[in-house]
Design a protein that fits this description.
heterodimer; A: 85 residues; B: mainly alpha; Arc Repressor Mutant, subunit A
């Protein structure tokens, strides 16, 4: 019988469908009886769905501009003879 | 803009196309570099990787997405930088240092919840995303993650990248990557839980 702690460890693999059949069945049995773990799995699922919409902290525009200018300069320096076409 | 069109414009030296790829990919490149070489020289590795990308772009065959290809270049540059400095780092090493997911003190000795998850007032992702404050709270939780967890969470959950590809890029086993992904997710979960409790 899996404990709540076991369920919390296996939660991501359960949500991502990465567990063997027998473990999946053991989790389903536990979830049938334990409302705390049902709530945990549901909330972790919501967390993952929400993370999908979070954008990484973007680089500052000044950093992007500087990088772009450096790359354009690099491109000019390696063109036309040294560019790997 | 289709990827093929974007590549053509990059090859033609179109500044707007350069703006777009740097804006879209720079953050993920930094995540990968930090995970492999650490924070101190990650910026430098990304700079070098961009130059490698520009040089190699005409040879890009489109067997993977442009983003995956660019991240592989970052990974190769980062690993070669480690070799040059005779340093060794395996992202997998980081897997054994922490608990697997939720903190130990949330459970009693018999493995049952001692501090069970509380009911959330806001329950759907759409509703959660309407709160600017919560989004910034989640972003902070992600920014505080160790570099390897940050990279895995960003590539898998934010960019929907295939786990096998992530393991190749970060040079990490699939089992370790799954443990690290779960740790990262539970930390963001706890940030949301704390926010909901306030």
């Amino acid at each position: 019988m899996l404990s709540c702690k076991d369920i919390s460890h296996l939660a991501s693999d359960h949500i991502d469908n990465k567990l063997p059949f027998l473990t999946k069945m053991k989790i389903k049995m536990h979830l049938f009886m334990c409302h705390h773990c049902r709530a945990f799995i549901k909330q972790l699922r919501t967390t993952i769905k929400t993370i999908k919409h979070i954008k990484p902290t973007p680089a500052k525009q000044s950093v992007i501009d500087l990088q772009v200018q450096t790359l354009l300069k690099t491109r000019q320096q390696i063109k036309p003879d040294n560019i790997d076409r | 803009m289709s990827e093929q069109n974007l590549i053509k414009r990059l090859l033609d030296g179109d500044e707007k196309a350069y703006q777009q790829v740097v804006t879209d990919y720079h953050a993920s490149m930094l995540y990968v570099a930090r995970a492999i070489v650490g924070t101190a020289i990650a910026d430098e590795v990304v700079q070098e990787a961009w130059v490698s990308v520009i040089k190699a772009l005409p040879k890009f065959e489109g067997r993977s997405s442009l983003k995956t290809w660019i991240l592989r270049i970052v990974s190769n540059n980062a690993k070669s930088r480690l070799r040059k400095e005779s340093r060794h780092f395996s992202a997998g090493d980081a897997a054994d240092l922490e608990v697997i997911g939720m903190p130990e003190n949330r459970f009693s000795d018999d493995g049952h919840w001692a501090v069970p998850p509380q009911r959330w007032n806001i329950e759907s992702p759409d509703e959660l995303l309407t709160s600017q404050e919560l989004q910034s709270c989640m972003q902070q939780a992600i920014d505080k993650l160790p570099p390897v967890q940050q990279a895995i969470l960003s590539l898998r959950d934010m960019n929907d990248m295939n786990m096998t590809e992530i393991c190749k890029i970060l040079d990490i086993s699939e089992s370790n990557s799954r443990v690290l992904l779960h740790r990262a997710r539970t930390k963001v979960f706890q940030a949301i839980e704390k926010f909901q409790g306030n």
